[in-house]
Amino acid sequence: MVFYALFCLACVLPVSVLGYPSQAGTEACLDLTPQHGATAQGSTSPYMLSVDATSVKQGGMVTVTLNATTASDTFNGFLVQARCTKCTTADTAIVPGTFAKYTASDDTIKTMDCENDTMNSMSHNGNAAKTSAKFTWKAPADFNVAEGIQFRATVVQVKVTWWADVTSDEITVTASSTSQVAPVLTLAVVSFIAVSSLLL
Q1: pLDDT band for position 197 (cuts 50, 70, 90)
Q2: Confidence at 24, pLDDT banded by 50, 70, 90
Q3: Cβ 173 vs Cβ 148: under 8 Å
């Protein structure tokens, strides 16, 4: 009887410890909080988010890497989003950019759709322990350049051990060349019309 009870516990334990083995739950989309019934760790996170650029044009691409600071600090789950840093709703403003795998064959990560936007989040795929995850993010072509972007992650080591507010450096967004040309062309047309009317 004891053996049977231990066998049943062994079968259930892997699922219960890892919570959402296939990816983060959509319940975590807004507050990036795993629904595991445990609070975030108060210690310094053993994980870091790095970006390959701190400035990107509208519609431009950024490479994002989530790394463990030591080889022993593996993680089983994570959820990463781009958040607006200069919006009035910065804590809940998920920037509607587009995540993608850095390597197409990487089956350890997958994109997520949060708050009715497609591929605006990146999460784990499966519960294999890993020390890093690498992906890309494309900025919206019409992003307001007055607002900043920062990647924010929650990283789960195991079900009851996780860290919130793992953040990257802030990224500024600049106007793309096409968005800069449009006002110039508009001004040129207006000037031409004005000069033409004076000559008539």
Answers
A1: low
A2: confident
A3: yes
Alpha carbons 127 and 35: distance in angstroms, whole number: 16
Who has greater pLDDT, 112 or 89? Answer: 112
Which residue in the block uniquely carries the two structure tokens 């892997």?
14
- Is 114 inside any structural domain? yes
Handedness of CA 11, 125, 41, 91 (dihedral sign): negative
pLDDT band for position 194 (cuts 50, 70, 90): very low
Residues 137, 79 contacting (CB under 8 angstroms): no
Please state whether beta strands 61-68 and 98-101 pair in parallel, antiparallel, or not at all (unpaired).
Answer: unpaired
Q: What is the pTM of this model?
A: 0.77
Rg, Å, the chain Cα set? 22
Q: CA distances (Å), 78 to each of 118, 163, 174, in order?
A: 18, 10, 29
Question: For the domain that residue 45 is a member of, what is the CATH number?
Answer: 2.60.40.4060
Q: State which residues form the domain around 170.
A: 2-174
